[in-house]
Design goal:
Elements (H helix, E strand, L loop, with lengths): L1 H11 L6 H4 L17 E2 L5 E2 L2 H15 L5 H17 L2 H14 L4 H14 L4 H14 L3 H9 L5 H15 L6 H21 L5 E6 L5 H10 L8 H7 L4 E8 L8 E8 L7 H4 L32 E9 L10 H15 L5 E4 L6 H17 L10 H11 L6 H11 L6 H20 L2 E2 L2 E2 L2 H8 L3 E6 L6 H7 L3 E6 L4 H11 L6 H5 L6
Parallel strand pairs: 6-7
Antiparallel strand pairs: 1-2, 3-4, 4-5, 5-6, 7-11, 8-9, 10-11
GO cellular component, one term: peroxisomal matrix
Pfam families: MCD, MCD_N
GO biological process, one term: malonyl-CoA catabolic process
Length: 521
């Protein structure tokens, strides 16, 4: 009966970050014995009192037992924690964090007792119930969250937490103990929730980067570029030169550090090739026929002809801090940049991305292997290629029907289809159809499987156009067989599109894109 009342209370008492932790205590409605402080489980699950864990416990005890007797004492405690963590060898950081997450998280005994008090208080008046609910809310806050909140107030504290969360995200998959992994997951979620508050749009500063910007900032733009790596100084100068805009978000707690970077090309139409953008610094960059070898150095300081600019192409967006993963910054940056460009160029009427399709080739080869294996054991219920595509490939390659799938896979894996223009043309239709299927039909929990698609669709963009031979660099070929996609932002519809996608998983697209999906299930 108590359990039932407790669940009813949970339904009524919705709390933000704390509500995730209530699930952890539902199975503990009987008193639990206190866990011995000095005996720890290793990440492999065996028990041992290691010197590393003992040192971590002793240090953490000095931190959490020190009272906050003023601003100076508080800052001193926070700095001691930061300096101690940064001084640890990389191999000792995760054991330290697992000890922190388990011993200084939520006190489950306290939570269970206060939860019982909430159930009992329901019959004793609204005032007592509200007071008891507040105690429960406070009990559900991990001890380390209070410490992290204070660390965020000291100089360099926010960057420290960003870097510490990056360590957790990097090493979390290697934690073997399910018990420790659960505690570590809550630890990183707690830091993420704090960072999401501190990195809300009101605390971010938009900054345009040009060749005249501070050298260290320009260098970081080059170092952090993850979508289309910058090759040399000339390439970097083109990316911040005429008919280009490079914007970053910075944060007051991380001066001189770009948090997220957006590269934009200013053109007369929506670009269908990344080579036309990266290889040509002037307005000729809108030329869709440019190839990887058609480099034009041009004048990166060329005066921009405003009358010719009618489209803004977002061709690279990079989050520079792994510790901010899961904190939505790119969406805010795109919206802010759109407003900035509208103020600067009244003639811009088209906003679109030119996006890579990471994961398509891996997905396709995996699907081909699955279907080939099914055929080998006599199961033939799932087709990847259409009968017309099989016939075309059979005739073009002079191979029997049963060899088409394996040959198709081999051509993709060895890049053999690129060596012959005729074979390349034969491969175009099935590859574009399957890529359209990957972007539009393949899902993860109801949302687009491809992470870049999920990002832009969540922002309210339309799955607008799939582009053949749009990125013929080795990176582009390995990612997506050279294809790229435009996600177009119709500003008057972005809010509605975003809501439909996030609530109902509806993907807005165009008739031309849907035509690629003909006969695809």
């Amino acid at each position: 009966m108590i359990y039932k009342h407790f669940l009813l209370f949970l339904y009524r008492f919705k709390m933000s970050a704390a509500v995730r932790r209530l699930g952890c205590i539902q199975r503990h409605l009987s008193p639990l014995p206190k866990q011995p402080l000095m005996v720890q489980q290793t990440m492999s699950g065996s028990t041992r009192a290691s010197a590393t864990n003992q040192e971590a416990l002793q240090f953490l005890e000095t931190i959490f037992s020190t009272p906050d007797l003023g601003v100076l004492a508080l800052e001193s405690k926070c700095r001691r924690f930061c300096e101690h963590y940064k001084s640890l060898p990389s191999g000792d950081k995760i054991p330290f964090l697992t000890t922190l997450s388990k011993q200084y998280g939520v006190n489950q005994d306290t939570v269970i007792q206060v939860a019982r008090n909430v159930v009992n208080a329901q019959e004793k008046g609204e005032a007592l119930l509200l007071m008891t609910e507040e105690r429960l809310r406070h009990a559900l806050i991990p001890q380390y969250q209070q410490l992290f909140s204070k660390i965020g107030r000291i100089e360099g504290g926010v960057k420290f937490l960003v870097d510490m969360r990056a360590d957790i995200l990097t090493n979390l998959p290697g934690v073997q103990s399910d018990d420790y992994k659960a505690h570590m997951r809550i630890l990183q979620q707690t830091i993420r929730d704090l960072l999401a508050l501190w990195f809300s749009v009101g605390f971010l500063h938009l900054q345009r980067i040009t060749w005249q910007s501070p050298c260290d900032m320009v260098q970081k733009i080059s170092d952090y570029e993850a979508v289309h790596p910058i090759r040399d100084v000339s390439d970097l100068k083109r990316r911040v030169g005429s008919y280009r805009r490079c914007f970053v978000f910075t944060h007051g707690s991380m001066p001189g550090e770009p948090v997220v970077v957006l590269h934009t090309a200013l053109t007369s139409s929506i670009s269908s090739s990344i080579h036309s953008i990266l290889k040509t610094p002037t307005f000729s960059g809108s030329n869709p026929t440019a190839t990887p070898d058609s480099t034009t150095d041009g004048d990166v300081d060329e005066k921009e002809d405003l009358a010719r600019i009618s489209a803004a192409i977002f061709y690279s967006i990079t989050s520079t801090q792994k510790g901010l993963q899961g904190v939505d910054l790119g969406n805010y940056l795109i919206k802010t940049v759109v407003k900035e460009l509208q103020n600067e160029f009244s003639g811009i009427t088209q906003f679109s991305s030119l996006s890579p399709i990471p994961g398509f080739k891996v997905w396709l080869v995996t699907e081909l292997n699955r279907i080939i294996n099914l055929k080998d054991i006599g199961e033939d219920n799932d087709e990847l290629l259409l009968s017309s595509e099989i016939e075309t490939m059979r005739n073009a390659l002079s191979i029997p029907d049963h060899s088409v799938l394996k040959t198709f896979k081999d051509l993709i894996q060895t890049h053999g289809w690129l060596q012959n223009e005729h074979i390349c043309e034969v491969m175009k239709k099935p590859l574009m159809r399957l890529c359209a299927r990957y972007l539009y039909i393949e899902k993860r929990r109801g949302f687009a499987l491809n992470p870049v698609a999920n990002f832009h669709l969540g922002n309210g963009a339309v799955l607008w156009r799939l582009n053949w031979k749009a990125d013929m660099s080795m990176r582009g070929i390995n990612q997506s067989c050279g294809m790229m996609v435009n996600y177009r932002y119709y500003l008057q519809n972005t809010e509605e599109n975003s809501q439909k996608y996030l609530e109902d998983q509806v993907i807005p697209t165009t008739p031309d894109f849907r035509s690629l999906l003909e006969h695809t299930g």
